[in-house]
Amino acid sequence: MRAKARRRGPRTAGPSLSGLLAGLAVAVLAIVLLALHSTAFELARFALFTVVAVLLPGFALWRLIGGYGRNLVEDLAAGFAVGTAGQVLVYLASASIGLQAWSWVWAPVVLVIAFVDSDARTRVWRRVERPLRPLQAWLLAASTAVVLLIVYRRGPGQFLPAYTDPLRAYPDLAFQQALAASAKYDVPISTLWLGGEPMRYHTFFHQATAATQWGTRIDLTDLIHSLSWLPLFLAGCGLVFALTSRLAPTAESGATWAGPLAVFVAGLGGAVQPLAGAGLGGISTAVAAYLSPTQNLGVLIALALCVVAVDLLRADGLRGTPSARGRWVLLVLLALIAAGAKSTILPLVGAGFAFAFLQLGLARRSTRPAFLGGLLSLTVFVAALIAIFGGSTWGTEIKPFETFVQLAPFPMLVSNPHAQLLSGATTLLSWALAASGLFFLGRRWRDTGAVFLAGVAVAGLLGTVLTTQSGVSQLYFLRTAFPVIAVLAAVGLANLVGRLGDRRAVVLVGVAGVLGLVAFAIARSQSASMPGIKGPWLWTLAAAGAVGVLVAVVWKLARRPGNFFVALLGGAVAACMVGAALVPLQGFVSDKASNLVFARPFRGGATAAEAGAAQWLRRNSAPGDLIATNAHCIIQRDGLCDSRHFWLAALSERPVLIEGWSYSNQANRIALASDSNPSLIPYWNSEELAANDIAFKAPTPAAIERLREAGVRWLYADHRAGEVSPALRNYVRLKHATLDATIYELR
Predict the structure, then answer these.
(1) CB within 8 A of 372, min separation 6: which ones?
(2) Torsion (CA) 528, 533, 538, 544 in degrees, nearest 10
(3) Which of 58, 324, 437, 483 is the most exposed place for a label (fewest CB within 10 A)?
(4) How far lies 407's CA from each of 280, 585, 663, in Å?
(5) What is the rounded CA–CA span in Å between residue 434 and residue 310?
């Protein structure tokens, strides 16, 4: 038998049938969720383009350049990130010469090379090195599915169908769509809702979406509101798992649950919520996965960067090899895309390399990879600050601890002279308990990869508490870093329960997590009527302690090995980390719970008639035709105008002379100088706005001529936005009319 085994050689690793079925189950769930708000033909085109033009070429490059092949979850998730990066770069190049409709051609070129060249074929299509175990695969599938269902319920399930109900909208999605509409024709992107002036913003999501639109011919509304969020989010979950697998204890210790737990915590955790009437900061990936597409892409690229950076910092034996050189190529590619995907990424990654540099220096080891990584991050960030953002900070200011005035606990404590301090302590305690596994990493801190991730985590926290933006947008520093924090917390918990010396510690973690959800629910209900924060916190801490004691007692009664206090700590930490997901889980069925964490619909969207008129304009006008409209405010009350009116530019895909003016570079500069809300500032050129509106309210030949001289070709008269004079048709040609809007063409 031994001789026969030697003749056969070692068996090549490969994914198990059970593991493949777990992946198939998640894929089926994803397809079902997408099918709920898209036609079968749209879904087929989107799936085909995503797989053939993004995923497969990215998968090939990930394996060919980086020499990877650990497991299919990692390779497919990272491959999607690399494919998206390649798609953006090719689209930028092709759009600059007017060939954006052919930007997909790079994908078949890569695939042909991957199949035709024998060396490339061997490296790309080989079996994986460390396939997931069946239990691990199903745990990962379950955690991903739960997070995915919550995101869907409080994303598409709450806001779709788009542009049909003016009382159920989210203006930021129209803003994202307007930028994607500009990306179809403009390099660089322009502010379509404000005459097409230049736009300084992280816009690579919009270029990626424009490339998909040209490749599939699917309407931008369906892409942004219904389809594109899901593959980005799924790939991000896969990379959370991949990053955890690099740091977690080996499979032999029974910690195969660490990766799935990290996915669950990153998706829904982040903040223990003891207060019944206030949410303590939404920092999990589920909060922004749907409503902030740039953040969704940013998290994916940030995680891919972290995976490559950790491998480069730890690969002492690979230096100088083709795999190491290829991974530097991947790092450069991902850093370039990070520069325009989300502005928060490179500062966090740079801080991670700085931490690694210090640790390597103190350990008297080569600091070259950390130095080069930090230099790359700094160089690309400075270049992006100049070339992409034009030196603009988008309203970011250095105001230490101002965040704690903007977050929910502060209004509850405003009468207390130490309100800001108490608000900060409450918020930080909430975040610390939700990631309490961090405090038990032990010897893992000697790992340069773990130190790099710690630098990312610390930078995310400092960026949030030391700066401020309108709408608490500085939270995006922590939201970008939080998946990394979840990874470290899950690894720390695995390290803690690993001290018990029992592979069945997964049972302890699972039971403690479920009991944590129950105990925190009881604590919230019992303390709901208590004033202030002291009572709710005492109930919450008592609930966590009770779970820890109960789990430890049962563990020892079952005659399991290990120290009682280690079991108690493991139970309490698991209860806090999993229990932090209580309110998001309740949000699946409860609007009251959802409003503490997730965004709620806004007023000020378009009616179906208004949207139909805007879409008529897109079909019957030429790209670049300028539109004038009388609609500027999604909400107007007491002399204040919320100018986040973007949907006309988004749906028509044409520049509008003056639609809204929020989220423009000029609005941000004025808001920063006057310390005001950029969505509520008045338009800075009142004469220009008056000249625009008078053409609708009291048209004269002179008023119409001013619009013609400004280059206006079309008038979009919105009857819900204000009075429209019947005399207007005497000066222009009526072209289209609906219940709520009329479109005219200048003669």
Answers:
(1) 328
(2) 80
(3) 324
(4) 7, 21, 22
(5) 24
Q: Is the pLDDT of residue 4 over 60?
A: no
Q: Are 45 and 217 in contact (CB under 8 A)?
A: yes
Mean pLDDT value of segment 301-312: 96
pLDDT tens for residues 316-353? 546 656 678 889 999 999 999 999 999 899 999 999 99
Pairing of strands 640-642, 635-637: antiparallel
Count helices and strands in the chain by DSSP H and E runs: 34, 10
At position 309, the amino acid (one-letter code) is A
Encoded tokens for 214 = 């040209």
Are 206 and 180 a contacting pair, CB within 8 Å? Answer: yes
> With a threshold of 0.90, does the pTM exceed it?
yes
Measured in degrees and rounded to the nearest 5, phi and psi for residue 191 equal: -90, 90
Between CA 99 and CA 210 the distance in angstroms is: 12
Could you write out the three-class secondary structure of 53-78?
Answer: HHHHHHHHHHHHHHCCCCCHHHHHHH
Domain residue limits, the chain: 17-159+227-597, 604-746
Q: Is 737 helix (H, G, I), strand (E, B) or coil?
A: strand
* Rounded distance between C-alpha atoms, residue 146 and residue 725, angstroms: 53
CA dist 548 to 55, 542, 555, 560, 731, Å? 43, 10, 10, 15, 77
| Cα 322 to Cα 331: distance, rounded to the nearest angstrom | 14
Given a contact cutoff of 8 angstroms between Cβ atoms, the answer to whether 136 and 257 are in contact is: yes
Write the pLDDT tens digit of every residue in 473-491.
889 999 999 999 999 999 9
Q: What is the mean pLDDT of residues 443-455?
A: 91
The upper half-sphere exposure of residue 174, i.e. CA atoms within 13 Å in the direction of its Cβ, equals: 34
* pLDDT > 70? residue 391: no
